[in-house]
Amino acid sequence: MLRTENNDVDKYQGDANSDGLVVWLTGLSGAGKTTLARSLSMQLKLAGLRVETLDGDEVRENLSRGLGFSQEDRDTNVRRIGFVARLLARNRVVVLGAAISPYLRSRDDVRRSIEADGVRFLEVFVRCPLKTLIQRDVKGLYARALAGEVEHFTGISDPYEQPLSPDITVDSSVETVEESTARILSHILNIGTLHDDATRIGFSAASQ
């Protein structure tokens, strides 16, 4: 668990002066992007911030239904997530985007469009070795992809272009969710992305 000081939580409740931010979590399927987004969302909400999570699978189901898994369709889905994130963030919402987003160009395009609105963008590479993901394979997707039953599976039959210079890298094969969450929050506060008073929020990972 991470904790914040009660006075700061009160300070943030409904604070119309809090800045927007987009935290973009990219990584292979099963690396832990959605789990990490949930953890970040909980802690940021405890600090009184307005938070929305845009999960790649949910956006594909509700906003990008009909798109396939070609590079063009994947890029279209990523840019749609980025468009919604930009609209929310420029209205002072902290947006957590959790999507594989496998291609450098589309991720960079999203960053440029968001930063052009004066909104801070934080790219988080959620790293996990492919070998570990295949061993985990909770949904059995990697086994099916390796057997040729799933086409265009990122990391197996389709490429994943790792970020060249992510703002922060976490590794879900060696870090707990709490540890990764604390490191990302620390980075957010240290660079002064949020409202100035956010620097007074104290948090620490409980037993690690």
Blueprint of the fold:
Elements: H1 6-12, E1 21-26, H2 33-46, E2 51-55, H3 56-62, H4 71-89, E3 94-98, H5 104-115, E4 120-127, H6 130-136, H7 141-146, E5 168-171, H8 177-190
Parallel strand pairs: 1-3, 1-4, 2-3, 4-5
Helix pairs in contact: 2-8, 4-5
What would you say this structure looks like, in words?
This protein has 208 residues and is of the alpha/beta class. It is 41% helix and 13% strand. The protein has helices at residues 6-12, 33-46, 56-62, 71-89, 104-115, 130-136, 141-146, 177-190, and strands at residues 21-26, 51-55, 94-98, 120-127, 168-171. It is globular.
Gross geometry: globular
Q: Report the β-strand fraction as a percent range.
A: 5-15%
Cα end-to-end separation:
10 Å
Structural class: alpha/beta
- The arrangement of helices and strands along the chain is HEHEHHEHEHHEH
Sheet with the most strands: spatial strand order: 2-3-1-4-5
| Count of DSSP-assigned helices | 8
Largest sheet report: 5 strands, parallel
Count all strands and give the number: 5
Q: Determine Rg (CA atoms, Å).
A: 17 Å
Summarize it.
This protein is of the alpha/beta class. Helix content is 41%, strand content 13%. The longest helix is centred in the middle third of the chain and has 19 residues, at 71-89.
